[in-house]
Every structure is written in structure tokens, then in C-alpha cells.
Amino acid sequence: MVTERIGDTYVKQLVLAFLDDPKVAAGLPVAQGARGTHHTWRGGVAEHILSVMRLTLRVSDQYPMADRDLLLAGALLQQVMKTVDASESSDESRLVGHIVLTAQKLREKVLAIPGFPPLLEQHLTHLIVSQHGDAPHSPKSPVTLEAQILHSLESLDARIASWLEAMQRDSHDRWTDSVRPYERQLWKGPSPTSRGRAPVEGGGRRKAREEKRKARPEKPQQQGTPAEGAPQEQQAQQQRPPRKERPPREDRPPREERPPREERAPRPPREERPPRDASSLPKELTFKPFSALTSLPSDSGKGGEGSSES
């Protein structure tokens, strides 16, 4: 797909340089998506990359104004560094993140290609840093047509893979249990049209495991084991091992009698205080907070009379 569909020489050299990288070549067939996201199975990252690449070919036919070479290269570059450390367990992945690591690796590969156009490098870098769209944690929002298309296709493929995986895990026939990331139940029953097919065949992994367990041949019953139709109490009694007899308890010596407590002498009654002498109380308050207010009317009255007399 890379050699046949990409026409630009520099883009083709860059993509092949990534695919020839030893770490990418070793991790691409086995890398899986991060737990709790999407494509969380062996080789899931490679499947996600190929799926988005196929979608870009369909979309570029519908929208020929979009650059097909940039779309194909961006579909690979957005996820390629996840193949090196898909679980993001290394110090470099946790501190830097796969987006920055991919941009750094892109710069390294570009410097090894003579005459690589700077504007082309900037557009490819923009496809990497804008892959999360307008999300708050996105380093850059899409500003090119190719970046917006790639973000939409990547989100579409990730959401569909996540839904199908949730349907596979569920054991019901029509509605799944509430799926945690989306807080809703998903319809997994057959289509109401003449097609009549369900998104996931087989009723889910749990149901398949239950059917396999039922299909297993029953083990021969050993001697001394209770029959299946026997009461549960009888089965439990036959399965329990006999109890060991406990030795008799030794007689404990009687407790020593404690001496009675000594009675405390009662407290003497309090002495009654004599009443306070009224002459010791102040006759007038030394601080009169309302004296200023009470003096205002008389002062103003005097001032008013004086002004009228004059």
C-alpha cells in the first residue's frame, strides 16, 4: 500500500524509514492498544493503522481536494510510536508521551533524507500533534483539511472497535450491560432489515465460554461421592471430613476475691459567701457611649436660636 499509493518521493522515503526502524519493525506485529481504550489485543495497533489507512483511501476518493499522500503518511505517523512502547510503561513514554516522541523521531528521520522540504515536514508534524482534535489535552487543534480528516477517521475507527469489543465481552443477546466509558447500553441484536445480522455473532465471549463448558463431557463419579440429585445437606455432610475430638478442658482455678473498696469521707459543705455591699457598687457609669448623641439636639437647638436671633 505504501509503495503503490504514495506518489510523493519524500513522503515515501519517510514512511519507509519508519517501517525499517528496528524497534518499529519488532513491535508493530505484536503491539496492542492501551488497556481500557481500544484495540486492546495482540497486533491491535497495526490493525488500527491499516484500518485508518483504508478509510483515508475511501475518503480521498470522495474528497479529491485532500492530499492522499499526507493522509496515508499521517495514518501511520499518528500511531507508529505506540508500537515501540504500547503500554507506555517506560520512563520516556510516561514523561514525554508518544506524540512528542513521534515528532522527535520524525525530525530525526527527516534530517537523514537529503533535500526534504521544510514545509512538508511542518505539515507532517501538524498531523501528529493535532491527532486529538479540539480536546483540552490536545497540543494543537487541526488547521489543515488532512488533519481534520485524520482526526475524524481515527476517532471513528477507535469508537467502533471499542463498541465491538464491549459487545464481544457481553453475554446478552440484545442489549449489553452499561458500558463504562460511554455510560449507556448498546444494542447488539440483529438488524431489523432483511439483512438480519447482528454486529457481533455468537452472543459474546462469556456466552461462548459457557456453551463450551456445558459441551464438555462430565467426569465419572467417584465412589463415595454423593449423587447429583441428593439433597444439599447430605452432599455437604458426605464431603466434609470428620472432625477431630477435642481434649477436655482443664478446670480453671477459682478467682481470688478482691477486698472491698474503702469508703471515702464525704466532702465538707461549701461556706456561704456574704452578700455584696451595695455601697461598693458604682453609682454611675464612668463611660457613657450615648452622651454624644444626647448632647446633639441641645447644641443644635442653641445654635439654631442664636442664628435666628442674629
Question: What does this protein look like?
Answer:
It is a single chain. This protein is mostly helical. It has a domain at 2-123. 46% of the residues lie in helices and 0% in strands. It contains 12 helices and no strands. The protein has helices spanning 2-5, 9-19, 22-27, 44-62, 68-77, 91-95, 98-111, 118-129, 145-169, 205-215, 232-239, 291-309. The radius of gyration is 43 Å and the shape is extended. The N and C termini lie far apart (112 Å). Residues 303-310 have low confidence and may be disordered. Residues 301-310 have a biased composition (Gly residues). Residues 185-310 are annotated as: Disordered. It comes from Pseudomyxococcus hansupus. Keywords: Hydrolase. One of its GO terms (biological process) is rRNA 3'-end processing.
